Amino acid sequence: xxxxxxxxxxxxxxxxxxxxxxxxxxxxxxxxxxxxxxxxxxxxxxxxxxxxxxxxxxxxxxxxxxxxxxxxxxxxxxxxxxxxxxxxxxxxxxxxxxxxxxxxxxxxxxxxxxxxxxxxxxxxxxxxxxxxxxxxxxxxxxxxxxxxxxxxxxxxxxxxxxxxxxxxxxxxxxxxxxxxxxxxxxxxxxxxxxxxxxxxxxxxxxxxxxxxxxxxxxxxxxxxxxxxxxxxxxxxxxxxxxxxxxxxxxxxxxxxxxxxxxxxxxxxxxxxxxxxxxxxxxxxxxxxxxxxxxxxxxxxxxxxxxxxxxxxxxxxxxxxxxxxxxxxxxxxxxxxxxxxxxxxxxxxxxxxxxxxxxxxxxxxxxxxxxxxxxxxxxxxxxxxxxxxxxxxxxxxxxxxxxxxxxxxxxxxxxxxxxxxxxxxxxxxxxxxxxxxxxxxxxxxxxxxxxxxxxxxxxxxxxxxxxxxx
RNA sequence: GGUCCCAUCGUCUAGAGGCCCAGGACGUAGCCCUCUCAAGGCUAAAACACGGGUUCGAAUCCCGUUGGGACCGCCA
Length: 469
Prior knowledge:
This protein is mainly α. The protein has helices at 16-31, 50-62, 78-90, 101-113, 179-189, 205-215, 245-250, 255-264, 277-283, 298-311, 314-327, 339-349, 356-367, 375-381, 384-398, 405-419, 423-435, 443-450, 452-467, and strands at 3-6, 35-40, 69-73, 94-97, 137-140, 147-152, 156-161, 169-171, 194-198, 221-225, 228-229, 294-295. A three-stranded parallel sheet has the order 1-2-3.
């Protein structure tokens, strides 16, 4: 049974890189009908916050990456770690270190300034009896001879020389355990079979492998995912723009589009670009995961989002766009929305809007009482020459029994052939009258969606405007 | 600096020794469609980092060089 976990530390929001790690874990679990576990790595109490824990969970929910066990919190499990630490001490595999952080820092600086690699010298290894009344940390005795081979599902075999590894601190002087240790204990306790994480952890892996052996457990399989980089090829971070997953939600992206984008960063399936969740689960495999890092490209994400908008059901989009309509001030909180009508409006717009934010903005002219004319559009199209045209059209439309796009089109066609003009010469002024601007869906559908009453009202207003020019 | 990882169009990638004077997608440019804007269709420019091997044959295997990245905490 495959058991994997996503183990974020709540020292920030769920970001793009973390989300992709979570996603690959989730896909691997679902593909293999295994379990996906969520574990919060909050052993650093000074930097972890409740707010971040909430935000990470919210991000996971939004992306619909559901987990089967957890969220577990390491701060609830300190007793467990203490037991393992004591065992290692009793077995002589760990020892008390009385060096102070200040001393350590000083030695590190000295090593660096002399061009040496900083490494703990192991001086406290030899202390036999505990020194009373002196604070101490616990260090793990790292083997200093031989090598470790990490068999990685993505990178292949990676070899490390043991003499490069330090005796790392597994428990701080305040009694709290550290990352490289708790990770191993938890992965053992939670029976994790595959550790899938960013390749920034690859250098930690040999240390962890030695902890597994010291504890007497078999190592899990490893898969180290290549990093996601910003446009300057450094690790993706705030200065590259939005990196929080929830920021993309707020910018009007669809979670499935983000998931699709993220999965294609490093994974491929022939030439296919767009995948349903079902396909993703079915096709996912580490065989098709690349080894090299990838640059986050917001333009491709935007394109994917527009593709997902086009393919989305209008009723679904209706529900999703409402918060954005409120945020744009187009409707008020608690406003009763006619979903049926909104869906029809969205049908005309969804292939034009790349995000829910854009969709909300485009809906303004359908929903608002009045439109505001864009200056250029108004000056160009609401001219005295069009006055008669608009007046005649207005009366023909008023007489229409069935206010449908095709009936409206018939009316337009009659008018343009009578006046021997091109459709654009009539459509553009009408478009400005209806939307205030020069860009919109097909004019007949716009009128149908808007409804006779609003159409007549807006034509009247345009006519009045021209008269008053 | 040390350790480790990586290297195909600007970007994401296909490529498992001959199917490749390298395919798809985003972006860019042009054309078509057209009531505007999109969407869609067609076309174009655009890459195997470099140098050595191995082989009848290398984008693919090996070595080196160069370049990029990550990590080197009583952070995770």
